[in-house]
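Issue: copy button drops trailing tokens. Both records pasted manually instead:
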Amino acid sequence: MIRKAFEAALALLLSAPVALAGAAESDYPTTARVDYVIGCMAANGQSREAMSRCACSVDTLASVLPYDRYVAAETILSMRQGVGQGASIFRNVPMYEDVIADLRRAQAEAEVRCFK
């Protein structure tokens, strides 16, 4: 039953219409951007330079990856960290691997643009 609920919720996330690349930049809510920058700064230093690079990173991510796809990937990654049946349904599923690969490509692009 838990498995079906997770699968249904994720299917809804993944089936949402993909935003156009130009519109994607503006569809990340401010809270999501701030959360990303805070986490990025925790990993890269609490300096003004780190803040600028992290802000650049989330802007790049938003320009490459629609927000609904970002949420889906983050949800999958978060669920994989758990234990038991609920977490196991998020491992080794090709559809989920594709979503995570999209996030990884967007993160690589942000790394190149903002941290090199």
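Record 2 (pasted manually too):
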Amino acid sequence: MSFAFIRKRSKNYIVYLEYKDKESGKKIQKNMGSFEKKRDASKKLNEVKDSIYSDKLVIPSALNVESFMLDFIEKHKINISITTYNNYMRICKKYIIPLLGSYKLDEIRPIHIQNYIDDLAGILTPQTIKVHVNILNLAFKKAYRLRLIKENIIECVEVPKNRKFKNNIYNKEDMIKLLNTCKNTDMELYIYLASGLGLRISEILGLTWDNIDFANSTVTINKITIRNNGLVSLKSPKTESSERTITCPKEIMLMLKDHKRLQLENKLKGKIKNTMNLLFFDKNEQPIAQDVLSKKFNKFLLKNNLEHIRFHDLRHSHVTLLINSKVPIKVISERVGHSNINTTLNIYAHALKEMDSEASDKISQTLFEII
């Protein structure tokens, strides 16, 4: 039971809140404000009492940020993938705890979080910092619901804006040069799947031969690769929209047929077993880690004096080329596995803006030049 009262100390009137600590069981008195005039103290007393009666009063917590964050992530584990859980825990132990962990949960303020974000701005990308903020936001929302804090302070901070990837994509000429350069190399099929189908790196490495329908020229994406405690395994994609079946260009289907024929020959010769039925596997016939392929791609670009982009940027290049080719946004969104059209619109706003300018020029030519 909590109650409030006024006590005169020297020349001031002090409002106290008395409550029982849940952990120690001891009675604790907390100073809720000191006032020179009794009427101001009485006003504050009534506010505190109203909070008690309406069950809106936040009892100070002995928890610090470190204890709460570790407990939150562990309990939140059931709602996220093992990869996300490991990433959250790594961020918490490497960044959040060293910089914020010692603060008492009820004493941390927006300025502390803002300083945390600003300190990371010169080290991490805006996209990565947003992951940090997302973790803190989820945790502090729970703390607010449990009445451990008075407000979700994360709502008060500013987050760095994402840098646009506009300059990190290949145009049509760049893509043709890349495709010609990778011909007959061990990177060829990877690059064709990413640039020709817009697949994510985890989706490419998660493909098994039952995903390839040669009769209907389609590829089904229903698995991705993840790394957990150093081991790479297959799992279902994060969202339902990522599970999809898309039509595959005939050129890529021919390459897939050749790849399967070569695997079958090696299997008949006893060189491989491929019990997991994978399209791509390492020397131990296990799924390939995403970072392994990324590094291999970077070396390929460097060796062939090609402009550096990330492997994932082949997917961005693919979508941008489709937009420039006037393929409907809904079709593009479904092919690349976005949860809704708005995701596609937001990510590729720059390409759509260029199309809008082109549309303006065309209507000018169609209507006004004849007047």
